[in-house]
Amino acid sequence: MNDRTVASLGEFGLIEHCFKELGRTDVPGVSVGIGDDAAVLLVPRTQDLLATTDTLVEGVHFTSDTDPVTLGWKTLCVNLSDIAAMGGEPRWYLLSIALPSTTSLSWVEQLAQGMNEAGKQFRVTLVGGNTSRTSGPMVLTLNLFGVVGHERALMRSGANVGNRIYVSGTIGDSTLGLRHLQKTDQDTSNNIDVETQYLIKRHLRPDPRIALGMALVDAALARAVIDVSDGLLADLGHLCRASGVGADLDLEKIPLSAAARTWLGNGGQEKWKTLLTGGEDYELLFTVAPGATDQLPALAANLGLPLTEIGVISKQEGIRLYERGQPMVIQESGFRHF
């Protein structure tokens, strides 16, 4: 049994042992990567640099029981989703990690494994970071950088009255997967049915819609875009406020997986509230001018990803929900940090 701790390697030994492999050589734009005082990154004049960051704190975003491979994957992918929402191509990231000295070396190896898996799939490379000792909970901070054509980044502020509202994939799977894990003490065994396994996977291993974001830029289709991280209602609210508009949503059009639809049953306010405010769907929510919606079916087919019209942008501020033509009021809007 390997009971070595991170203290047995020290800071630089830990970096060499666990993280050096995450510095990939097949990602363009790296003049100097891991190993110097700073990374040197090359961005052509025809492109703009995108930057995003996220911090995960033990006890808030994950627990000591969380599978470290899964945590590594998710830490990278939630940032990738932000780059996807801007229509960018992700390239490089920095990782800062604060650990108790008693942390198992095996735990860090598995965390790096998860990040390496995501890095290979989405072609992003680690170019530097920092490790630190802490007497408190573990803290992971990831800074991710990407590129997009000059002045072509997608914003959340461009929605116009009459735009049709679209969302990719399905909504609510992640929060239902989380509910199962909370009830079963993080059980991800094969002793659960296929639908529940699907929901859990959607929560633990999100799939950032990078190809969709880049396609929306290439086709110049989207007027406003945001990724669904805080919940569909909360993030649509962010988009509407940034654009100075409101929205009307048809609940019957919200795309749901077979597993989520089984759970929803005959609907009702509380169940819709769960699906629309749970968050961590990491789909893209975007608006399209009514004259351009005929291009969406071909785009969806090309990507192999459902793109569903769920409502319309309106002049009146706020979000109005309708189920079978009848108004529905859902008070809670989504995840809030404070």
| Helix-residue proportion | 25-40%
The CATH homologous superfamily of the largest domain: PurM-like C-terminal domain
SSE string: HEEEHEHEEEHHHEHEHHEHEEE
Total count of helical runs of at least 4 residues? 10
Rg calc: 21 Å
Strands ordered across the widest β-sheet = 8-10-7-11-9-12-13
Keywords:
alpha+beta; 4-stranded mixed β-sheet; Phosphoribosyl-aminoimidazole Synthetase, Chain A, domain 2; 34% helix; 13 strands; 2 domains; 338 residues; 7-stranded mixed β-sheet; 60s Ribosomal Protein L30, Chain: A
Question: Can you summarize this structure?
Answer:
The protein has 338 residues and is an alpha+beta fold. It has helices spanning 10-19, 68-85, 105-122, 173-183, 194-204, 210-219, 232-243, 258-264, 269-277, 296-303; strands at 30-32, 40-41, 47-57, 89-99, 125-133, 139-149, 164-168, 222-227, 246-250, 284-288, 307-314, 318-323, 326-328. It folds into two domains: 6-149, 60s Ribosomal Protein L30, Chain: A, CATH 3.30.1330.10; 164-328, Alpha-Beta Complex (Phosphoribosyl-aminoimidazole Synthetase, Chain A, domain 2), CATH 3.90.650.10.
What does this structure look like?
The structure is a single chain. This protein has helices spanning 10-19, 68-85, 105-122, 173-183, 194-204, 210-219, 232-243, 258-264, 269-277, 296-303, and strands at 30-32, 40-41, 47-57, 89-99, 125-133, 139-149, 164-168, 222-227, 246-250, 284-288, 307-314, 318-323, 326-328. The relative contact order is 0.16. A hairpin with a 2-residue loop joins strand 12 and strand 13 (326-328). Helix 4 crosses helix 5 (194-204). It is an alpha+beta fold. The chain is 34% helix and 25% strand. The two termini are 41 Å apart. The chain folds into 2 domains: 6-149, PurM-like, N-terminal domain (60s Ribosomal Protein L30, Chain: A, 2-Layer Sandwich); 164-328, PurM-like C-terminal domain (Phosphoribosyl-aminoimidazole Synthetase, Chain A, domain 2), CATH 3.90.650.10. Strands 8-10-7-11-9-12-13 form a 7-stranded mixed β-sheet, with helices on both faces. Strands 3-6-4-5 form a 4-stranded mixed β-sheet. A two-stranded antiparallel sheet has the order 1-2. The protein is globular, with a radius of gyration of 21 Å.
